[in-house]
Design a protein that fits this description.
Elements: E1 5-10, E2 18-23, H1 28-37, E3 45-48, H2 54-66, E4 69-74, E5 77-81, H3 92-95, H4 105-112, E6 114-118, H5 131-139, E7 143-147, E8 150-154, E9 164-166, H6 172-183, E10 188-192, H7 198-209, E11 213-215, E12 222-225, E13 236-237, H8 242-255, E14 256-262, H9 270-279, E15 283-285, E16 290-292, E17 307-308, H10 320-329, E18 332-337, H11 348-353, E19 357-362, E20 365-370, E21 378-380, H12 384-396, E22 400-404, H13 407-412, H14 416-422, E23 427-431
Parallel strand pairs: 2-14, 3-13, 9-10, 17-18, 21-22
Antiparallel strand pairs: 1-22, 1-23, 3-5, 4-5, 6-8, 7-8, 10-12, 11-12, 14-16, 15-16, 18-20, 19-20
Helix pairs in contact: 1-2, 1-7, 4-6, 6-7, 8-10, 8-12, 10-12
The chain binds uridine-diphosphate-2(N-acetylglucosaminyl) butyric acid.
């Protein structure tokens, strides 16, 4: 579903002229699991602060295709009524477009006893297997069959049973899918080695607020006592997107004199604010804002330091690419180690084509020597986060860059160009 739109960006050539306030929208990775959780409820679900991004539309299309009803009740409020699904099979055309489709497996199986889905698609950043899901469903008593390209998963006649599941890797969407499955399973489910990302916590806290007995939220061990029926009590308010806030922060560090990032949770981004402070960036925070003030020293006065991505609260893999752009402008040598995914450094080729000094040591590790001036280029967004990183690089660079494949950027960031124009960037979306 790629459209033929691209961005034209006039680079600042290393100047720091952006200024003003930029507001953060609701989080993609928080809203998608909660949309999937609509299937668990015996009442309609209302969500607020929902971002207008492509992945939200894809999730809505999947739910509608299953037989749910959904409408936007105001600009950022969405109502989903998934009480009467007509199908338990995820359409392959949409599921193959985004990984988060796998989130629906847990609630459909728990509520309807059977689910059929293809191997989920998504950004090409690594192997992205689903073995943790298969193993977990089997532990809950289900049978898993691969039929052609599809997985057919069937619960026992009397429904999924609570189980003790140890995740061999921390997995965000698996933790979320099993929190949802456990909420309607018989008895107690204990999940170990859980992801602790704020988005996982947000889903669990919402289910808890709807009466599900969940303990250990935000820790590696989560216990859930399943219920026969769950009803929504209050609307779900989508968390601010920490990854969007983090991307704006890196952009601000490199290109803004004064920038206030509003509607965010600075506590969820501590690892990035500390990294930038260590480099010399004048960053401060309040409850809901991150502020860059008097950022007048040149970028080569900032110092480089190594990054190693890690599950929360470590350095997020989703901010690895924007942070690498930062390191092309700072003074020193630094390695970037991608610890979560096998294939998430390929975009560095594009930075090299813009003039960066980056050498790949292996698919998990690059060395960046800075500072190097960047020059404009025609670029292609390879995935959501690297797409935004290339956008930041284009703003840093001298001259006018073009970014193609912006469907990827639109998957995770709502009309980002409009908010960037408001802080002084010359950026245009061109439709062919
Ligand atoms: N893994 C397995 N087996 C599985 C599932 C995962 O080995 O069955 C491995 C993965 O291959 C990876 C590691 O576990 O090496 C962690 O992957 P995880 O499952 O946590 O990733 P995910 O749940 O598919 C979510 C986000 C990603 C984000 C990662 C890591 C959503 C919808 N997606 O993906 O976000 O990068 O967690 O934090 O929440 C993005 O927003 O652009 C994005 C890619």
């Amino acid at each position: 579903m790629q459209n033929k739109e691209y961005f034209e960006i006039k680079g600042l050539g290393g100047q720091k002229t952006l200024s003003g306030k930029i507001s953060v929208r609701g989080s993609k990775n928080a809203v998608l699991p909660v949309m999937a959780s609509s299937i668990l409820f015996d009442s309609p679900l209302e969500l607020t602060n929902v971002p207008h991004i492509e992945d939200v539309e894809r999730m809505r299309e999947l739910l509608l295709d299953l037989g749910a009803e959904s409408e936007w009740t105001s600009k950022r409020s969405l109502k989903i009524d998934s009480r009467k699904l007509k199908s338990n099979k995820l359409t392959s055309e949409i599921s193959k477009q985004f990984r988060a489709s796998i989130l629906l497996s847990g609630p459909i199986l728990a509520k309807y006893g059977k689910v059929v889905f293809p191997h989920p698609g998504g950004c090409v950043i690594g192997a992205r297997p689903i073995d943790i899901f298969e193993d977990g469903f089997k532990k809950m008593g289900a049978t898993v069959k691969e039929v052609g390209e599809e997985y057919h998963i069937k619960a026992p006649k009397d429904g999924l049973k609570g189980a003790e599941i140890f995740f061999k890797n921390m997995s965000v969407t698996a933790t979320e899918a099993f929190i949802m499955a456990g909420s309607l399973a018989r008895g107690k489910t204990v999940l170990r080695n859980c992801s602790m990302e704020p988005e996982v916590q947000s889903l669990a806290n919402y289910l808890k607020s709807c009466g599900v007995n969940i303990k250990g939220i935000g820790t590696p061990t989560i216990e859930i006592i399943g219920k026969k029926s769950i009803k929504t009590k209050t609307p779900y308010k989508t968390l601010p997107d920490r990854l969007e806030a983090g991307s704006f922060l890196i952009l601000g560090a490199l290109c803004a004199k004064d920038l206030t990032i509003t509607n965010c949770n600075p506590d969820d981004l501590m690892v990035l604010t500390e990294f930038l402070k260590d480099a010399g960036v004048p960053v401060s925070t309040t409850n809901k804002e991150i502020i860059i003030k008097n950022n007048t020293k040149p970028n080569d006065s900032f110092t480089s330091s190594n990054i190693r991505t890690h599950e929360h609260p470590g350095f997020p893999t989703d901010l690895q690419a924007p942070a690498a752009v930062f390191l092309t402008q700072t003074t020193g040598e630094a390695t970037v180690f991608e610890g979560i995914f096998e294939n998430r450094l390929e975009y560095t080729d594009s930075l090299v084509s813009m003039g960066a000094d980056i050498s790949m040591w292996n698919p998990h590790k690059v060395m960046i020597k800075g500072p190097k001036p960047l020059k404009s280029k025609e670029l292609h967004s390879p995935d959501i986060r690297a797409g935004l990183a290339l956008l930041i690089a284009s703003v840093v660079a001298e001259g006018e860059s073009v970014i193609n494949n912006i469907y990827y950027i639109d998957r995770g960031y709502e009309r980002v160009e409009e908010r960037l124009r408001d802080i002084g960037l010359d950026i245009n979306r061109i439709s062919e």
